[in-house]
Amino acid sequence: MKFYNREKELEAMEKVRQVAFSVHSQMLVLTGRRRIGKTSLIFTSCENTPTVYLFISRSNETDLCSRFVSEIRQSLNIYVPEFVQFADLFRFLMDLGTRMAYNLVIDEFQEFHYINQEIYSLMQDTWDRYRKQSHVNLIISGSVYTLMNKIFKDSKEPLYGRADSIMKLTPFNTSVLKEIIADHKPDYTPDDLLALYTFTGGVPKYIEQFMDNGCTDMESMIDFMLRPDSSFLTEGQALLIQEFGKKYGNYFSILSAISNGKNTLPEIEALMGETSIGGQLKRLEEDYNLVKKKRPILSKENTQTVRYEVSDLFLRFWFRYFIKYQNYIEIGNLERLADIIKKDYPTFSGLALEMYFRQQLIESKAFANVGAWWQGKNNKEQDEIDIVALYAEENKALVAEVKRQSKNFKPSAFVQKVETLRKKVLFKYDIESRLFSMEDML
User: Fold this and answer.
1) String of DSSP letters for 154-191
2) Which of 48, 375, 400, 405 has its CB surrounded by the most CB atoms within 10 Å?
3) How many independent structural domains does the chain possess?
């Protein structure tokens, strides 16, 4: 699959490199979840300029240095002495930057935490000494969000405040998804686009795997994910163990509960044997960015009417099916699991469709706030509205119901819900009502 999007990121990275090459060294930190396309973006940004790429695998420091020496010799065609400590090698590279301008990429930088944590303070000393007199465009990348955040944003850490730019890579937006699927299937249907969004959440690597293998509809995507050799079967586990380490059990249970519709604190705690999970939910939301706390739009911060949502669409899918039906995977009955997913897909993709339209409204930049509204702890359907969006510059609101098929829309029931919303919350707003269905995706 060709390289898509990221024009703003590439422009920002080019500006940083220009400063590094013409004024003095710059440090750019690039974060984002696994498979989000950080390495592809880095290589694209560094095209046609001298570049050293160092990938940090969790291994012996001396062995790493040996491999890095070979990589530097080959990349820059220069003599490099042997090193056994990365701090000494980094000092050599920064000194080299006093004589030539080049890109230095250190990928999966957080792995030094497990190899030798002293490296960070030694790098800080070298960076402070050489930064002003050298011309190194240092790009540091990492997939473990919590560790990268700690390394560069915790005031107690040696590299705190050293990054000139910190860029977090996010999934592709809805317009890029349309562009990609149109390139691979010009006659794509709304359901094809919804399936791509539902299963990937806009994560580039998953999209690339589907497109490169000709999977452009719901059934072929599911069949591809459920091949015996599919990386999708273990992807969620690999992604989360990378973040949580060995203490992932309760986090897995919480994410699984939310993905299967248990989205209030009492519901989740009941499912986990009345165990108190408030602290873990807070960490999932604030530290790991895997869960979002949702309140009815315009409600107060301390309202008890709170729901939780798994913010990563792929993980939501993975927990809903690959964890829930792990027994089918273990005994190799993948055909049965594929059948379950396909039959459940119209129901499961309904929430993804709501999220798609909310995301599209956010991307339009026309709104100050986009969310949903409900009242009461029982979440009765007649007291809930899928989308409420407040315009940015006027007292006007867009209120919408989302249905996969417009024939399922009940106008009279929706009018009653809008009136309830008007009386309860939007009494100062002009309300625009509409229906969103799959036809509106195109």
Assistant:
1) -TTSTTTTT-SEEEE-----HHHHHHHHHHH-TT--HH
2) 400
3) 3
